[in-house]
Structures are given as structure tokens and as C-alpha cells.
Write a structure and sequence with these properties.
Elements: H1 6-30, H2 34-37, E1 42-47, E2 53-56, H3 61-78, E3 87-90, E4 102-110, E5 117-126, E6 155-159, E7 162-163, H4 165-174, H5 188-216, H6 218-247, E8 251-257, E9 263-271, E10 276-280, H7 296-310, E11 325-328, H8 344-361, E12 374-382, E13 388-396, H9 426-432, E14 435-442, E15 458-464, E16 468-473, E17 494-500, E18 515-519, E19 523-528, E20 533-537, H10 568-577
Parallel strand pairs: 10-11
Antiparallel strand pairs: 1-2, 1-5, 3-4, 3-6, 4-5, 6-7, 8-9, 9-10, 12-13, 12-16, 14-15, 15-20, 16-19, 17-18, 17-20
Helix pairs in contact: 1-5, 1-6, 3-7, 5-6, 7-8
Length: 578
């Protein structure tokens, strides 16, 4: 293969990224759910004929690293049996998925002349309810995957251009309801509409790929596809050599813990000559009974994100970032769970701890909040007699503080690392759902203290305007986000149920109205009555560097500055700065 032309290399990198960006805009504009249209909890990407990630826009890191596993799995299932007009759907963690609410839609791209597959387009979106034991399909109490909703290993949702609505209903509504205590999807109309939006976004990508092929010819396009991957590979090799030199050692190690005490341990052995490394997670805890188990694809997502984040280069995240790395995961650990293990928290919480562990080993920055503060609420499901009751579900993740680094302060009130989503606008939340937001702001005093301070967490208080099931799935409620180089840790989070006293509940003893403040812990589900509130205080980020001399008496306080939020322009700025 000839050496790449640097101008064409940059041009193709941006052309490929622009395909993913256009897919994302299409998906946002045509979707219907708050989760995808407002929170932007989706990702779009372009894949090579062998299933490797070629390019993406800066969407959700946990999606992008694992989607390649999903594409390759479907390639093994169908082989050469795919035809033009076929579209595949999957969400199984053991078929390259992350957790069940994240549904992946995969479309092959055929050459107009040879009819061979030349690319794949894929989109993954988080759907607010896919069934299971609780509204929102993120049950804090799940102990197996059947309680978390519909699991689809492989389903041809579109066959030769024909949409299989009956098959979708079978997978999303009828199958999950067969498990005791579980319901089918509580709002299949919204899910079906969003899946069609994903299919349309993939088709948009196909159209744009054909434009690039028409402009340059397929051989040139595919040649630069591999050049881009090689460029990412060499960038990571150079990073590893540089890390070994700065550390003065070719062996790095770190350990951190989940709130239940489960360790996540990492040893990195760098081959300085080759610019390669072995990342060995030996010593990590066993599979857990709860839902903090993380599929192997999620582990790879966290690692590839860290590698890309530590590169000070403007290149698309792609499969080349993983080529110099060998990732070893101990069997029967919480990072390699069995097929029936619950996983909904592993994707959103354990993944954050994996990032903390990797960045700690590379001495890159202090810990961020290490959590996504997953809040779900809604109604419907099965009553005590097993009768299905129609309902709805809502899901959101809540920001916290990011960790400080060797030359920068942490950022306050931001989604960190693996999540990269937005929170729904208060006005839209209150218009669409029976809730009222009483507080939403920065949490004073939650940032780690040091030469470079951590970011502050946030406070979010929501009142329920009618009775509903409310669930919270969170971490860093018993263990603080670490600081580095003598910097202080970030503050732990807390979840408080502000419960009205009621005669029916037995706590209105003397007939005097009032409230109880109940710490419900990091993982809980509660049936809340009308007027009850949930107060969520999210963790802050760790600090970098110890305070010295006069700094001990003059700790810099966080100064909040107004800037426009909640707009498409904000997301565009974030993408440009990635």
C-alpha cells in the first residue's frame, strides 16, 4: 500500500466523520422520544467490510467502542446471506451490545456494481422502556438479564425493504412479558418510531457513502479507510512509548473499587520498542449478583475511549486505537459475566470505574464523578395478579464533577467520560411528564480541593405530581472519587427521598403533616406518592496536586459563569472541541 497523501488523509477522515454526523442529525430530527431527540443518547458510526470501526462523530463513547463487536457478530450470523434492503437489529450484551435499552440497528452498504458489501452503517440509541420488572428498564434491583427487558440477539427488522412490525412486537412486547414479574415494552409506539428513525439515519449514511465513492472511486476510498486506521494505530504506539518514558517504567498499575467493595484491578505492561501494551485486569472481582457486571465489549469501549482521550491529535476514534493493545480479562469476573447475568448498571457505572482505573494507571488525571446517576420513573407493568397495565417510562442521566489534571481545573456540572449525553430540558420534562423540578444547580462543597480543584457535582430535586415508581441506579455513594499528586478527593453523592407523612403509610402518627428525609442509598426503587420528592446530589471530581503555603488559607472557589445551554449550537461546539 502506498504512503498516504497527508491532505487526502485529513480530507477522508473528515468526510467519513461527516457521514456519521449527518446520520446523527437525521436521527435526532426524526426521532420522537425525549431520550433520543432531547438527551441525544445515541451514536452513529461507519464500519469497514470486516466490521472494524472506521469513523464516528463524538457521540457516546460507550456505544462507539462496542458497536464493532455487534457488527462482527451479525456478520458471523448471516455471512454472505445479506441482501440490499436488509436491516438488522440487536441489543444482546453477548452479541456486542452494552445493555438492553441500547438497541443497535445495522445496515450493510452494497457496491452499486459488484453488489459486494463495502461498508456498514450503524446507529445505537437508548430506548426509555423495553420492558422488564420496572418502568424505564434500568431496574436497580435486577439480578438476571430477564428482569431488564427484551433481549434480541439477532433480528432482521427489515427484509428486502419490508419492515417486520409483527416480529418487532413479538420481540419487544410478548417475549419479555413471559418472565415472571416482567412486562413487555410499556410504550411500543415510541420505540417503533425511534427504531424507524435509526433505520432512516443508516440509509442517510449509505447515500453519503455512495457520494464519496462516486467522487473518488472505491479503491481510493477503501485505501484511505485503512490509512486512517493505521494513523490511529501509530498515534497510540507513540503515546505508549511517551508514557513509558515519562513514567520511567514499562509497568503501570492501579486499582479502584465499586461501592460494594468489588475491586477493578489493572496492570499495564508496555513494550517500548514496539509501542504496544498488555492491559491485564487480573485481580478484578467475581461476577456480582446485582447488575454491575460489564460485558467484554464495554471493557473494550472504555479502553479505546481512554486511548483516544489521551491523544492530543485530531483523529477520528477508530479500530486502529486498539491494534497495539492486548486486553486480558479474567473469566468469571464482573468484566466477563455469564450470559444470564444482569448488566444494566455495568454499562453506565462499572464502565466509568474502568475509565477511572485506566486513567489512574496512566497518571492522566484525577477521578471524575465516576457515575451517571441513572434516574428512571414511570407507571405500568404487571399488577399483583399478573395482569398487564399500560404505562410509560422516563430515563435520564445526571451530571457531576470532572477530575482535575496536571494543568487544569475540573469542570463542574458536566456529563463525564463514557456518557457524554445531555440532560433533558426542564421545560420539556415538565410538559411531557407529571413531575416538577424544584432545584437544578451546582452542589457547593463537593469538589476535590487541591492546586487544581475538581469540578462540582449538581443538585437535582424532582417532585412527583402523581404516584409513580421511581428508581435510582448510582455509584460513588460510599467511596469518594480519588485525587492525584496530593489533591483531595471529590465529594460522595447522596440520594434522599423527601417523603410526605401519610395515614395510609402508617407514618402520620399524631395527625401532624410533615415530611421524612430518607437516604435510599445508591441503588433503590421506591413507589412515591403525590407530592413526594427525590433529591439527588451527585459526586464531585477529584483534585490534582497538594495545596502549598498561602494556598492552604486561600482555596480558590468555583466561580459560575453563564453560558448558553440546551441548544444544538452547544452540541456543535462540543463536537468541534472533542
Amino acid at each position: 500500500m502506498n504512503a498516504p497523501d497527508p491532505i487526502l488523509l485529513t480530507l477522508f477522515a473528515n468526510r467519513f466523520m461527516s457521514v456519521a454526523e449527518a446520520m446523527g442529525r437525521s436521527l435526532q430530527q426524526t426521532s420522537i422520544s425525549t431520550n433520543i431527540k432531547e438527551r441525544l443518547d445515541f451514536s452513529c458510526a461507519l464500519f469497514a467490510p470486516d466490521g472494524d470501526l472506521v469513523a464516528n462523530a463524538p457521540f457516546i463513547p460507550i456505544h462507539l467502542g462496542s458497536m464493532s463487536f455487534a457488527v462482527k457478530y451479525q456478520m458471523n450470523v448471516y455471512g454472505k446471506d445479506l441482501e440490499e434492503g436488509d436491516v438488522l437489529m440487536t441489543n444482546s450484551p453477548h452479541a456486542g451490545g452494552s445493555h438492553l435499552p441500547d438497541i443497535t440497528i445495522i445496515t450493510p452498504v452494497f457496491d452499486s456494481e459488484t453488489k459486494e458489501i463495502i461498508f456498514f452503517t450503524a446507529s445505537r440509541g437508548h430506548h426509555a422502556d423495553i420492558g422488564g420488572i420496572l418502568p424505564g428498564s434500568m431496574p436497580p434491583t435486577s439480578v438476571n438479564i430477564f428482569e431488564e427487558g427484551a433481549e434480541i440477539v439477532s433480528f432482521k427488522i427489515v427484509s428486502k425493504g419490508i419492515f417486520d412490525k409483527d416480529g418487532l412486537y413479538e420481540y419487544m412486547v410478548e417475549q419479555p412479558a413471559k418472565y415472571p414479574g416482567s412486562s413487555g415494552c410499556r410504550n411500543i409506539r415510541d420505540v417503533e418510531s425511534d427504531l424507524k428513525a435509526q433505520i432512516a439515519a443508516n440509509h442517510k449514511g449509505i447515500q453519503l457513502i455512495h457520494v464519496i465513492v462516486d467522487d473518488y472511486g472505491l479503491p481510493t476510498v477503501q485505501e484511505y479507510m485503512y490509512h486512517i486506521r493505521s494513523n490511529a494505530e501509530m498515534s497510540v504506539r507513540n503515546l505508549l512509548r511517551d508514557v513509558a518514558k515519562r513514567a520511567g517504567s514499562t509497568v503501570l498499575s492501579s486499582i479502584d473499587y465499586l461501592d460494594d467493595g468489588s475491586p477493578i484491578q489493572l496492570r499495564v505492561d508496555i513494550n517500548e520498542e514496539k509501542g504496544s501494551a498488555v492491559l491485564d485486569f487480573a485481580g478484578t472481582g467475581f461476577e456480582v449478583r446485582g447488575n454491575l457486571n460489564a460485558p467484554i465489549s464495554v471493557v473494550h469501549s472504555a479502553v479505546i475511549y481512554c486511548m483516544r482521550a489521551m491523544l492530543d491529535l485530531d483523529i477520528p476514534l477508530n479500530a486502529g486505537c486498539l491494534v497495539p493493545l492486548e486486553i486480558k480479562i479474567p473469566p468469571k469476573s464482573l468484566l466477563s459475566p455469564s450470559k444470564t447475568a444482569a448488566v444494566c448498571g455495568g454499562n453506565v457505572l462499572t464502565s466509568q470505574r474502568i475509565v477511572d482505573v485506566v486513567l489512574k494507571a496512566f497518571h492522566a488525571c484525577a477521578a471524575s464523578q465516576g457515575c451517571t446517576n441513572n434516574l428512571t420513573f414511570g407507571t405500568g407493568g404487571k399488577d399483583k395478579d399478573g395482569k398487564a397495565i399500560p404505562g410509560w417510562g422516563y430515563y435520564e442521566t445526571i451530571a457531576g464533577g470532572s477530575g482535575a489534571g496536571p494543568s487544569w481545573h475540573g469542570t463542574s456540572g458536566i456529563h463525564t467520560h463514557i456518557t457524554n449525553t445531555r440532560i433533558g430540558d426542564v421545560e420539556i420534562l415538565e410538559r411531557r411528564y407529571p413531575v416538577m423540578v424544584h432545584q437544578f444547580g451546582l452542589r457547593s462543597g463537593s469538589a476535590g480541593v487541591g492546586k487544581f480543584r475538581g469540578g462540582e457535582g449538581v443538585v437535582r430535586e424532582i417532585e412527583m405530581l402523581e404516584p409513580m415508581q421511581v428508581s435510582i441506579l448510582s455509584e460513588r455513594r460510599t467511596r469518594q472519587p480519588y485525587g492525584l499528586e496530593g489533591g483531595g478527593p471529590g465529594g460522595m453523592g447522596r440520594n434522599t427521598w423527601v417523603k410526605n407523612l401519610r395515614k395510609d403509610d402508617g407514618d402520620l402518627v399524631d395527625g401532624v403533616a410533615g415530611t421524612r428525609d430518607i437516604n435510599i442509598g445508591g441503588k433503590a426503587t421506591v413507589w412515591m406518592g403525590k407530592g413526594d420528592k427525590l433529591l439527588i446530589e451527585t459526586p464531585g471530581g477529584g483534585a490534582w496536586g497538594a495545596l502549598e503555603g498561602d494556598e492552604l488559607h486561600h482555596v480558590a472557589e468555583h466561580k459560575a459563569a453563564w453560558e448558553p445551554r440546551g441548544s444544538i449550537a452547544e452540541r456543535a461546539r462540543a463536537q468541534a472541541a472533542f
